[in-house]
Amino acid sequence: MNERTWERMGAGSGLVAAVLLLVSLLLHPAAPTAEEPVLTFFYIAANRGTVLLTALLATLAGVVFLWFVGHLRHLLQRAEGGVEAFSPVVFAAGVGLSTVTVVSMLPVAALASMTRNVAIASQSTVFVLAELHRFSLGPLGLLVALFAATAGAAMVRREMLAPWVGWFGFVVALIGLVAGVSSFYLSGQFVVVAGLVTGIAFAVWVGDAAVLMLYRPEVDRVQARGAAFAH
User: Fold this and answer.
1) Which of 36, 83, 195, 221 has its CA 20 to 30 A from that of 121?
2) Contact call for residues 17 and 204 (beta carbons, < 8 A)
3) Which keywords does this chain's UniProt record carry (predicted)?
């Protein structure tokens, strides 16, 4: 396969990850907060299939996203002419975001698994698992902010895609920053809604970027104008 085909495969992985994440977010039921462990337990028990599907789709999104992150590193390294500018930070933030996404689904899957045996479930256990999932929204939001801000800066500098996609990334970064910081100090539905908005905005942004990469592979743009930091 030539480089253009490989680029389309990398861009396609971003689109698949965005769709998986978006579907998982839209499927996720608005469960009661961790402060109501009894309601949380019975709500998850009543929606066990949906909760497990949500966790599975989000986990798959995190795994597929790794391919897209590797693709972005390749594009940025080529655009930067071998100079390590944004590419290492984008790569590290993307790997961290994927890892935390997968880990954040473990408490949710554990809660759904517990509903098969009411005898082993206690209010304290349900509370702790629900709180672990909620607290994961903090690191997730901050990693979204870092990834979107650095990748967006590269786009604004015309290292890849178009400046408007980079400015969109800055908006996503701001949303992620607010959601990430607030999750450490606040609780209840605000944190849940902030996390949902962050996830949807991030999925839409990644999906837009992937579609543009599929429409015009970056190798065509680089051949037209050369590396950003070549001199």
Assistant:
1) 195
2) no
3) Membrane, Transmembrane, Transmembrane helix
Q: Is the pTM of this model over 0.90?
A: no
What does the DSSP assignment read for 64-99? HHHHHHHHHHHHHHHHTTT--SSHHHHHHHHHHHHH
Residue 188, Ramachandran bin (φ over 0: left; ψ between -120 and 50: alpha; else beta): left
> Are 34 and 189 within 8 A, CB to CB?
no
Q: Answer yes or no: are the C-beta atoms of 61 and 17 closer than 8 Å.
A: yes
Return the exposure string of 107-139: e unless at least 16 CB atoms fall within 10 Å of the residue's CB, then b: bbbebbebbeeeeebeeeebbebbbbbbbbbbb
